[in-house]
Amino acid sequence: MNKNIKRRDFLRGMGTLTAAGLVSRGFKSARADSHTAPRHLFVIGALGGANILDSFMPLARDASAEAPGITSFAPSLIETVKGVDLRCVAPLTSEIAGPPPYSADFAQRTFLERHGADTAVMTLDHSSVNHGVGQRRAMNGGGTFQGRNLLEAVAAKYGDGMPLAAVNMMAGEFSQAGIDPALPEFARQVNVADARFFSLGAHGSLGLPLPVEDQTLARARAARDTLEQVSPFSTSFAHVQNRQRYLQLRERALQLEASGLAQKTSLVALPGFPAPAELPRISELLPNIATDTFEAQAALAYLLVKNGGSCAVGISPSDALSAEAGGTAKEPGAIRNPALAFDSSHNTHRIGQHVMWSRILRVSDALITLLKETEEPGFPGSSLWDHSLIYVATEFGRTRGRPVGFTRFGTGHFQNNGAVMISPLLRGGRVYGGLDTSTGLTYGFDRQSGAPVVGSTMAEKDVFSVVCQAMNVAFDGRTDVPTIVR
Amino acid sequence: MRTSMIAKTITCAALMVACGDNTKSPEEHLDRTELRWRRHHAVMADLGRALELSPEEVCRDADGKSCATIGPVRVTEYLQAHRGVLPENAEAVCAQLQGTAQCDDGAYLSERSPKGVHVFALGGNEPFLGTYTPLANPGLTTPLALDRVALLACGERARQDQEGSPKVFTEIDLSLPDVSSETAGLKETVRDLYKRLLARDATDVEVAILLAIADGPEELSAVEAVRLVCFAIATTTEAVYQ
Fold this sequence. Notes:
The structure holds two protein chains of two kinds.
Chain A: H1 7-19, E1 40-45, E2 78-81, E3 84-89, H2 93-96, H3 108-115, E4 119-125, H4 131-140, H5 150-158, E5 166-168, E6 190-191, H6 198-201, H7 214-230, H8 232-236, H9 241-259, H10 261-264, H11 279-285, H12 293-306, E7 312-315, E8 322-323, E9 335-337, H13 349-372, E10 388-393, E11 397-398, E12 413-414, E13 416-422, E14 430-432, E15 434-436, E16 441-443, H14 460-470
Parallel strand pairs in A: 1-7, 1-10, 4-14, 5-6, 5-7
Antiparallel strand pairs in A: 2-3, 4-13, 8-9, 10-13, 11-12, 15-16
Helix pairs in contact in A: 3-13, 4-14, 12-13
Chain B: H1 2-19, H2 26-29, H3 40-51, H4 55-58, E1 60-61, E2 65-66, E3 69-71, H5 75-82, H6 87-98, E4 113-115, H7 142-163, H8 186-198, H9 204-211, H10 222-234, H11 237-240
Helix pairs in contact in B: 5-6, 7-10, 8-9, 8-10
């Protein structure tokens, strides 16, 4: 290799080659096949019920006599990608044109072209059609691992010594912590509401209009610590548990401040906070981080993992209406996040699903690209992506019926669905399970062979188990699926 | 007679429930297993009252953004702050979303919506970001967010008192470039801050601990000293819990 070429440029070039399909995947030799290798988990909450039939398991209208009355697409709207045994929905350009106009500028096909080989779809039946319950179970596998959620489970294994091992920026009940009292303190998830201003909560004094010297502030904090030992309040409530926990939390918070993460994760211009060196590249891939909280979450997730701050991060779009800001080729006011996110399907199923899948996949693509371009510290020749997994979590699917001949219709909550996972740690490029074309219902597969089995179903704990298996996180009752994990 | 006794017993029992059990000693009253976290609205209100700052003045971080306030959020304000709409596009986007020729601007969600960059860390919910459930307990960023809020509020009071007629730091000459624990008025300031921030008298030990902040190796102006003393008191667990 030309020594004048920086490793970063080389990695970027490799990412481009991979995207173009010229090489199957970069850094195969260093694939995380060792149990001591690091792992990074990214959970993306597809809020509101992401229906697998509207992305990588679409049903063609001519697939069966019953298909026209089911959520199905004209055969011309179903696309395939060479070398990948997954299908997808073509851009529904005329349907999203409005009024009101919607923004769905990232094609599912593009995602499969770039990451299809790493994309595995696993059918499942959710256990609830209640948003909150479904979201919690998507995160904790129905409580299969002592009530830990996936972020906490991975953080407990890989997060010791990290200032923020598990970070949860997700909306709704995806944001809820697990309930395992035995979880180590360092693995407890830290919630972040607005990624754009995370830095402000990671440093107690940086960038204040009236600056304070570090040494001086340290003296004031030391005085505060002494007060905590001698004040009448401290004496009276010395053993109160939540006060004790707060004092420990304050010590850990000072470690977070000292870690310098605040200075490495500032996404928007904040006085006193330097812009991270990675920001120009991040902004190329995620151009709306200053105005779109979901893009900002993805950017922060990358920076947290890249800087060794976290090993498990959850992000999600919110359920609030979001429109394009203008200033780009996109039409100002075009809806990029419908109100209720995927749950907008109650009124406009196809548009809601299509726009939200585009949004989820576009941000996932950007995150994967960044991870591919970044070398894994301590593992020369491998990228962060080689050790990562993205799990698109959702609470349930959508009802299958629709009025024949209509493209604009509404759907309800439904248990039957499928989960999307993307990782070089998985044997991707295929669906695990199958689709009954006469009902639109998915069915499961044989765990040993991976072969579809009509009439069988997979559950939330199976998805939870596969993620943990890929992450090398062991727990009693894990239902391994050796055929999915490499 | 019997009826009267029963009535008296019921009355006494009701009073004990209503007013507390006076048979307990003060020590027994303090035998609590849990304290209540004082969240953003309590923190901001108390800081404002103690330091005689209006809700708008108490805390502005990151180039003037509110730290944590409660109030109405207008449609155009919401679009800019939470939905990434540029100010110049806000009216047009508002009108487009409403399906009207002109934006009918007004309260978007509620007259009492939490808003600010530290709301969530200080125990509030962020409905505009889909975070409907606030933290059950302080999170890892809570202590640092509180540090910033206290430094900003105390600093704002010190700045205003230095530049105008002092309201809170009246006992000390705020123009002094270097102070020590012996500086006239610093001790009185500490005692006054305890009354303002924690509603009690400081003990002599507490006063001594805080005065020592001014005796460090580097120079400390009067403004810096009162700000840091104020910060230290306002971020103790006594201020965080009740």
